Amino acid sequence: MPAKRRCQFTGCTSAALRMIGECPNCSLNFCASHRLPEDHICPKLSDCRQQAFERNKARLESERTVANKMGTAQS
Ligand SMILES: [Zn+2]
Ligand SMILES: [Zn+2]
Questions:
Q1: Percent with pLDDT over 90 in the chain
Q2: 32 near 20, Cβ under 8 Å?
Q3: Distance 73 CA to ligand 1 centre (A)
Q4: What is the H or E stretch that residue 64 is in?
Q5: What span, in angstroms and rounded, lies between the C-alpha atoms of 1 and 46?
Q6: What pLDDT is recorded for position 48?
Q7: Where is the signal peptide (predicted)?
Q8: With bands split at pLDDT 50, 70 and 90, how would you rate the model's confidence at 72?
Q9: Do 25 and 49 have their domain in common?
Q10: Are residues 30 and 61 in the same domain?
Q11: Number of separate domains in the chain
């Protein structure tokens, strides 16, 4: 019989959720209260945020370029 997984959040004694309790970022298992990256202060969260920020920035810049081109064509 497999041992019950415990939430990996420091100080938490709740049982980790199966499947959905695993954080896709840090691969640790958490209970319902801590499964979100924000809730267990995921060590990979800042990386993800930074990547999302960079992606968003690049997208906005490309959109702005397209908008400028359209504006030029219309005038
Ligand atoms: Zn927990
Ligand atoms: Zn995590």
A1: 57
A2: no
A3: 56
A4: helix 45-74
A5: 37
A6: 64
A7: none
A8: low
A9: no
A10: no
A11: 2
How far, in Å, from the CA of 67 to the mean position of ligand 2?
38
Q: For the chain, what is the mean pLDDT?
A: 87
Question: What tokens were used for 31?
Answer: 């209970």
Mean pLDDT to the nearest integer, 21-50:
89
Q: How far is the CA of 63 from the centre of ligand 2 (A)?
A: 32
CATH value at residue 21: 4.10.1110.10
User: Ligand 2: distance of its center to the CA of 33 in Å?
Assistant: 13
Q: Which ligand is nearest to the CA of 34?
A: 1
Kindly state whether residues 37 and 1 are assigned to the same domain.
yes
Same-domain check for residues 37 and 2: yes
Do 7 and 28 fall into the same domain?
A: yes
What range defines the domain where residue 50 resides? 44-75
Beta bridge partners of 15: 6
Neighbours of ion ligand 1 (CB under 5 A): 7, 9, 12, 14, 31, 34
3-class SS of residue 21:
coil
